[in-house]
Amino acid sequence: MHTVWKGSISFGLVNIPVKLHAATDNKDVKLRQLHKECHTPISYKKVCEGCQAEVKDEDIVKAYEYTKNKFVVLDEEDLENLRKENEDKSVEIIDFVKLEEIDPIYFEKTYYLSPDNTGGKAYVLLRKTLEESGKIGVAKITIRSKEQLAIVRVYKNTLVMEIIHFPDEVRDVGDVPNIPSVEAVVQKELDTALMLVEQLTTEFDPTKYTDDYRTALMQLIEEKKTESTVVANEKRPLPDNVTDLMSALQASLDKTKKPKTRKRATTTRTKKNA
What we know:
By secondary structure, the chain is an alpha+beta fold. It contains 6 helices and 9 strands, in the order ββββαββαβββαααα.
């Protein structure tokens, strides 16, 4: 399993060398875009909106747009120094809270935590502590130059780190439009709805839920593969001006040459007449 991050996590004076691994996979079926006429993959170029010129990576700088069309340009050296200052590979659990106190809207991405070679004992200690206390740890971690808020909890027999949003990253629910105000609900309708919920209530079994669209899409792709496989055309070589010029000159020469067979025939007739 690929290691995303390597460092240590601590609570109090207990330090645990750990590795971070992505706990989920994106199973989306990725489709390429082809030119309808020749089935060649479409590529995208970076073009300057001002001069319409294609821009190379080395000619691009990063900037922050603080108001419309006004930017603060940031040097790569300054950004690198800032990253080094904040890239602490040691994660300290700041607080312990109950999991149910955190609304699911805060959760973003899940990672598995595995102990490094020397961290097995401390890893088990933290896992057992969280299990016995019924609490989860709140911590901060820097991944790919971005500081993240996170929680550490137990999933089956493994420590899991959940990256969660900072409070200012969650939009204000008051900004959601067209939310109906409190209205009277007919008791009979409510009773019927509650009865329906009761009938559909069961234990959560994730294996019973499948991505039907992805399954159908992959089935369609397999059927298309057996019928006929579309092969993308190879990139055509760009025209060579020198070659084109030589071809044009040669064609011109060939066109202006006199037929040799006609000349011989004329010579033969002349000899006979003599």
